[in-house]
Write a structure and sequence with these properties.
18% strand; 12 strands; single chain; Inosine-uridine Nucleoside N-ribohydrolase, Chain A
């Protein structure tokens, strides 16, 4: 399966990219970057660093620096650290971004691999909405779009009502849901059922000293956030669960429903069922233990 991950690395993004690199059934052909956990220039630097660390010769195309109608973005430093990788702040600039923008690379790749390409969006949906505007055939050229975002049946994580990726560009998300490609939504309804605990990271590092050790080290900051804010003993495999949903749909239960996003007021960013919209396959439940085990098996195979 040919895959592009639209990403804002980000600790959980790093985990998802490592999983995709390790999974034999995935042909990871590129990374497109977006604001979110970090500023977009940090996302791009981190994505290029990860690609190099994983031995991936793939393009990294930089996307939107902020949400539609905005002029700036404030990253989630309290969750992912000042540079996106927890306490690691000395991250080298390796290589250069692709000449095309994220939206342009998405459009070009979907044309080149018509009916084959899966895009997994694990940040705000601005790049996806931009690609849909750039090429009206973009959505139809995809095999499917898998989105890590939303909280349809449970509370949000950035506000009581909203999940962070949708909240950070509610207008772009609503635009995507208004005329989606074949879409799977992997939201907080399932990703909080895939907790990865300190012991899991330690075991991963024993099997994969280089990449697993790196993920263990950067996760300490992330795990502390989960412990301090939610009293949880692990972190959700948010982005990795979305990548796993690209290839392992039988591990999930789905509800088909149209979706819209609240754009204003105290519930801004909330993802709501909307029968007037085209259907999206919303993940309602997951084999959480199976996802955790699969993640460990794949990433443990890395050096």
């Amino acid at each position: 399966m040919k895959l592009i991950i639209d990403t804002d690395p980000g600790i959980d993004d790093a985990m998802a990219i490592a999983y995709a690199a390790a999974a034999a059934e995935i042909d990871l052909i590129g990374l497109t970057t977006i604001f979110g956990n970090t500023h977009v220039y940090q996302s791009s630097r981190n994505a290029r660093f990860l690609a190099d660390k994983l031995g991936l010769n793939i393009p990294v195309a930089e996307g939107a620096p902020h949400a539609r109608g905005e002029t700036r973005h404030t990253p989630s430093e309290h969750v992912h650290g000042p540079e996106g990788f927890g306490d690691l702040t000395d991250i080298p600039e390796i290589g250069a971004n692709h000449d095309l923008s994220a939206a342009e690379l998405l459009v070009e790749s979907a044309r080149a691999h018509r009916g084959e390409l899966v895009v997994c969006a694990v940040g705000p949906l601005t790049n996806i909405a931009d690609a849909m505007r750039l090429d009206p055939e973009f959505a139809g050229n995809l095999s499917k779009l898998v989105i890590m975002g939303g909280a349809v049946f449970c509370p949000g994580n950035i506000t009581e009502h909203a999940e962070a990726n949708i909240y950070h560009d509610a207008r772009a998300a609503d635009e995507v849901f208004a005329a989606p490609p074949a879409t799977v939504l992997v939201g907080l309804d399932v990703t909080l059922k895939t907790l990865y605990e300190t012991a899991d990271f330690e075991a991963l590092a024993q099997h994969s000293p280089e990449m697993g050790g790196f993920l263990r080290d950067i996760s300490r900051f992330y795990l502390k956030f989960y412990k301090d804010i939610g009293g949880l003993e692990g972190c959700g495999l948010h982005d990795s669960t979305a990548v796993i949903a690209c290839t392992h749909e039988p591990m999930f239960n789905f509800v088909e429903t149209g979706l819209s996003v609240v754009l204003d007021g105290p519930e801004a960013g909330a993802t709501r069922r909307d029968p007037a919209r085209p259907p999206v396959r919303v993940c309602r439940d997951v084999d959480g233990a199976g996802v955790v085990d699969l993640f460990t098996q794949r990433v443990a195979s890395l050096p």
